[in-house]
Amino acid sequence: MAKNPASAGKTVTVEQIGSPIRREAKQRQTLIGLRLNKLHRTSTLEDTPAVRGMIEKVKHLVRVVDGQ
C-alpha cells in the first residue's frame, strides 16, 4: 500500500516541559513512546493520528514546538 501523499513528510516537534514524577504509569510510558524522558528534551516525530493522540494524553507535560 502506498502512503497518503498529503501526510508524507509532515513532522511535529514536541518538548517535555513537565516532570513525570507522581504521574500515572500510562503517562510515563506515553512520554517514553514520544522519545521524551527528561525535562526540556525535544523530539521530532512523524505527524500521524497516533502521535497526535499521544500528545493529547500528556498535553500538560509537553509543548508542541513546531508542526510542519
Describe this structure in words.
The protein has 68 residues and is α+β, with helices and mostly antiparallel strands. It has one domain (11-67): Ribosomal protein L30/L7 (Ribosomal Protein L30, Chain: A, 2-Layer Sandwich). The protein contains two helices and three strands. The chain has helices spanning 25-33, 49-57; strands at 11-16, 42-46, 62-67. Strands 2-1-3 form a three-stranded antiparallel β-sheet, with no helix packed on it. The longest helix has 9 residues, at 25-33. The protein is globular. The two termini are 24 Å apart. Part of the 50S ribosomal subunit. It holds the Pfam family Ribosomal_L30. Residues 13-62 form the Large ribosomal subunit protein uL30-like ferredoxin-like fold domain. Keywords: Ribonucleoprotein, Ribosomal protein. InterPro entries: Ribo_uL30_ferredoxin-like_sf, Ribosomal_uL30_bac-type, Ribosomal_uL30_ferredoxin-like.
Give a quick set of tags describing it.
about 70 residues; alpha+beta; Ribosomal Protein L30, Chain: A; 3-stranded antiparallel sheet; 3 strands; about 25% helix; about 25% strand; ribonucleoprotein; Ribosomal_uL30_bac-type; Ribo_uL30_ferredoxin-like_sf; Large ribosomal subunit protein uL30
